[in-house]
Amino acid sequence: MTRGMRLPEAKAHVAEKLGVSPGDLSDPVGMNEIREKLGFGRITTFEISHPTQPVAIEAKFNIADVLGVPVNSVRRFETRRVGGAPQSVRARPGGAAT
Amino acid sequence: MDTESRIPTRMGDGELVRMTRSEIRADLEAGTEAAARRAKVPPLTEEELEHLLDIYGSPARFTGVDIGAEVVLSYDGSGMKTIASRRQDLQIYEQWFGADTIELHHVDYSFKPVKAIVPFEAQEMHEVLLRVVAPVQYGAQPNLGLYSRPDGPVPNWSELLPQGQIAEARAAQEDAVPLAVKDMVYVCEAMYEAGADGVDFDTSAAAGDADFQATLLAVEEVRRRCPELGIEVGMSGEFVLGMHGEVEYDGVRLAGLWPREQMKLAVRAGATIFGPVVNVHAGKSCAWNIARACTIVKPCAHEATIPVHMNVGMGVGAVCMTKYPPVDAVCRASRACVDILKVDGL
Fold first, then answer.
1. What's the pTM value of the predicted model, to 2 decimals?
2. Cβ A2–B196 below 8 Å, yes or no?
3. Could you report the per-residue pLDDT of B225-247, keeping only the tens digit for each?
């Protein structure tokens, strides 16, 4: 959604990163195992007995890492975690961001 | 004597009716011909009409795309305190409904009223992002009408136009555009800084061509300031109304644009998702409406260089104009859009 990739291209990118075929991405059985293995988060209603596994934004960090896609929320939280304060992104004259 | 069996199907207003396969076929042909004439685009092919007939001529309660051909399901207006708080509703959309993207929004759903409460909305965005995996958009309408009196500072062009004060009405719209752009950029940038994965300019061009111009100018500036932000431009109708008639974006006159041309300008401005709309004719069958919708959007979907998320909901995209769209109508329209248009999402 940030790169403007059309679906076949986006599915191919994700499938390659996960080592599966594009058709596998919508298989909930196979993907549940992959999501568990890679820490992508799962449906907590049914996976409630896995308190040590990543959920929510924790899982989103893993997704950004594995897929190699810039994710704004992940980048923001990473910045705050390290720097302790939100990084301003207001553009300066000339287009550079701080 | 009519010996064909009658199949339960829907009218555009949601009424359950029974039509023969021949009648459904005739409506499909009439729908695509009406669209081709109106939008000056090619009609659907014989093969496409036959596929639509298979979908709409089935008495099955539910239908769907082939396994492996699933598309992204994005949601505008998700998380509106239907069940619990906004953040809990968004968790429900992700965890129970399987939403691929979710959208935080304020119930007023226009950028102008959000401007005054943006610190609270940005904080809510931050809290939501901590609790979900799915990409989170912030959605609102450009809603240029809010900048005219009595809601806003500029004269009301809807009052001036019937009085024949064309120049004054145009000037009022031109004065409203920079005010709307400023508010949209302000809200989007605040959401970007809070961590939003995307923003949704929903129901763009609802107030006509100047509304669309404001949206495109805002998208251009948001893209410049927020390079990693997803930007969805969702339309309000199939055809940009010429409330002004002469405003342009990047040298293109906006009044009268159909989805393909709307999409091209959205891409030029910096959008990463485009949401075309085709309004429903409530007095025609859903079969007539889907043929018309697919015909109008097909050139847009086939030529797009960014994802196309067709608007398929109450009153648009061949889904009945009723508060509770029947699932039989929703699933048929959704499957038809994916199979015929190869859209990236709904």
1. 0.93
2. no
3. 999 999 999 999 999 999 999 99
